[in-house]
Amino acid sequence: MKKTITKMTAIVLAAALSGSTVFALGQKDAPTGEKVYKIGVVQLVEHVALDASYRGFVDGLAEEGFVDGQNIKIDYQNAQGEQANCVTIAQKLVNDKDDLILAIATPAAQAVANLTRTIPIVITAVTDPASAKLVKSNELPGTNVTGTSDLTPVEAQIKLAKQFVPNLKTIGFLYCSSEQNSKFQIDIAKKACAELGIKYIDATVSNSNEIQQVTQSLIGKVDAIYAPTDNMIAAGMATVAIVANPAKIPVFCGEEGMVVQGGLATYGINYYELGKQTAKQAAAILRDGKKPAEMPIEYLETCDLSVNADTVKAIGIAVPAEIQAQLK
């Protein structure tokens, strides 16, 4: 009996010195008796919208009874906008045999989904999972992937541009050529422009270093710029504003964070709430044993109007009366 106690004491002491816990993932935690689930997170890049979706996810999990450091352990990784980093991080999370992986933004989701067909994956800030080949259909995924879409009311955003600029003849579409979610939105925007009789110019970038030059190339050619929920442009929105605002070119955006960074206006979704909605799906998988294959992609039903008052002054544009009424 004395030898057994001494052996157990040595194990606990070794664990304490190494900073590790004495329970294994999926086993009973000695103090609480709860399972501890390991959740891996891969986020494409840091910017207002994606950061908000992650905060919403963590807070949403807490509301569902899953608290980091108690019954879950979150391993958060940021790819800093590099696709190669997404793949490296995805490999790590899969090798770690996480119980669930959260992928924030389309490239991050594709990197993880390409590496595992067994670990449940929840996604957020992905505009159209079906066209990104993450699911068989948004209504019935049929894979180990489910989550939430950040599809915004693109048509309403183009109409908003027309409200601010009644004589809008040509608009520039500013986005990253390699982002599937951006292409999906731009196709919708082009159809909306065709219905409104607005011409358009594609202004694409392949890396963040091109944002300033490509934005400058639109001066004198367009009456306004439209940037969808494009991760590269969102992360470099301050650069876009530095060029566009002095040139008196209004920039209409896909989401509120881009407006905060210097854009003029948007009808956008709340990414924090989107993250919380994703957390409910994750909780259903962990707690209730639900299968991602049978869980439809979900959408936020409401959008918010955002107008940057400082940008309004900087470019000297009038806020239409109907827009003013919505802001009150």
TrEMBL record:
Record's keyword annotation contains tRNA processing: no
SUPFAM superfamilies according to UniProt: Periplasmic binding protein-like I
Residues forming coiled coils: none
Domain of life of the native organism: Bacteria
InterPro entries noted in UniProt: ABC_transpt-TYRBP-like, Peripla_BP_I
Keyword entries, A-Z: Signal
Signal sequence bounds: 1-24
Positions of transmembrane segments: none
A Pfam family hit: ABC_sub_bind
Name of the featured protein: ABC transporter substrate binding protein
Source species taxonomy: Bacteria, Pseudomonadati, Spirochaetota, Spirochaetia, Spirochaetales
